[in-house]
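Folding Task

Wanted — backbone structure
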Amino acid sequence: MPLVIRPRTDADLPALGAVLVEQQAASGYPHREPLPMSPEDFVAREGTLATWTALLDDEPVGHIAVLPVLDPAVSREPDLSRLWMAGHGLPAERLAEIGVYFTATRVRGQGIGAALMRTALDHVAALGLAPCLDVIPTGSAVELYRRTGWREVGSTRPAWLEADAPDVVAMVLPAAS
């Protein structure tokens, strides 16, 4: 059965929570162990602009979300907001964060993550927003983002970051010229 990417439903949450936990050892994401909430609550963030589930054979195997970037005055992570705003030269309300992005370990290398990212980026563009993300610089994620056009705009140490983790890298995807 072909890959299907569709809006996430609440019925997807148990399977996506299991996928999140399963892939954590290989990817290092999320960067907190144990999570301060259930895996399902981690996936089902409040305030998202949009969320999608990737399915193979009707089984959830990946997820991505688009979240608003809040003005630093009200953001729980004001330094990230400031870095993204400076990186794009835009106010927070013109930005969107790509997050809660993961795929099952067993489907890596099949283009599922890339398809999820395309879906999210298309949505961000349709909203007239500029994309941002943050990443812990472990493994190959930063290099993958660089190869696909993302640009580093700084690093910061969010309150949720564990003491032994490196600073979070803030990245933006410049508009195509």
Remarks:
- The helical segments are 13-27, 39-43, 78-88, 112-126, 141-147.
- The chain has five helices and seven strands.
- The mean pLDDT is 93.
- The CA atoms of residues 27 and 140 lie 9 Å apart.
